[in-house]
Amino acid sequence: MSEASSTVLEPSEFGVAYPDVLTMGQVAEILQISMPTVYEVARRPDFPVFRVGRKLLVRKEGLRLWMESQEKRDKSLA
């Protein structure tokens, strides 16, 4: 993947077609992080998580935008 390409959640990129609303397990799989880490990230105020009952969920588009903002933030630190 070239450096100029944007972060896009597409089935071909992950090998799986994800639904529009993701579970914490799916987010962990996409970000390639552990479940404890995904719950830690979900507590951040800038992370696009919402609650339905006791379940934490993330809109796929919200995750994509959050990933892009993290990428821009990290590049500005370099």
Written description of the protein model:
The protein has helices at 11-14, 24-31, 35-42, 60-77; strands spanning 21-23, 49-52, 55-59. It is an alpha+beta fold and 78 residues long. A 3-stranded antiparallel beta sheet has the order 1-3-2. Helix 2 (24-31) crosses helix 3 (35-42). The model is unreliable at 1-5 (pLDDT under 50).
Largest sheet: 3 strands, antiparallel
Our count of helices gives: 4
Q: Point out poorly predicted stretches.
A: 1-5
Summarize model confidence as the mean pLDDT.
85
**Helix and strand element order:** HEHHEEH
**First and last CA, distance:** 20 Å
The SS-based structural class is: alpha+beta
Brief description of this entry?
The protein is of the alpha+beta class and 78 residues long. It contains four helices and three strands; from the N terminus they run αβααββα.
